[in-house]
Every structure is written in C-alpha cells, then in structure tokens.
Design a protein that fits this description.
Elements (H helix, E strand, L loop, with lengths): L5 E5 H6 L1 H10 L3 E6 L2 E6 L29 H8 L5
Parallel strand pairs: 1-2
Antiparallel strand pairs: 2-3
Length: about 90
C-alpha cells in the first residue's frame, strides 16, 4: 500500500462517511485508519476470500498407501548396516 493515500478519521466521522470510506478503500486503495480518542483502533481493508481449509481428512479417498509402506527394502537396510550375508 505504499502508493495509496492514508486517511485517518474519528469513529463518529467514520460512521457518518462509511459508504464513502469503503469506496475509497476498494476503488482507490486508500488506507483508512479509524481512531477513537485520537488513538488508532481499526483499519478498514477490503475483504479477501480465505483459501479452503486443508484440515484433517481433506484428502480422504484421494490417496492410497500401499500395504508395504512402512517396510524397508533389504538393499536399503544393507546400505545402512552392511550386507548381512558377508
């Protein structure tokens, strides 16, 4: 938001000019700061959709894990511990 204008308004003024402030934030990329008793308390920013939740179970039925998933092949074990046949 470096190129945007910053507008600071008091709470009462913000209530009176809300539609205008929303338009400025959306169309002109204005940085709107709302104050209460001359202290910043809120910033008016455009709403952004949040990505869909990727919680537990989000890929249920889409991934298949083989039966031997946690079995380490002998040649790999031999590389770590040496060939047991020697």
């Amino acid at each position: 938001m470096s190129d945007s204008q910053q507008i600071t308004v008091g709470m009462h003024e913000a209530k009176s000019r809300l539609s205008e402030l929303v338009r400025l934030a959306l169309e002109e990329d204005a940085d709107i700061v709302i104050t209460q008793r001359n202290k910043p308390v809120m910033r008016l920013v455009p709403y952004e959709e949040q990505p869909e939740s990727r919680g537990f179970g989000a890929l249920k039925g889409q991934i298949e894990i083989s039966e031997d998933f946690d079995t380490t092949p002998d040649d790999i074990v031999d590389q770590f511990y040496g060939d047991s046949d020697q």
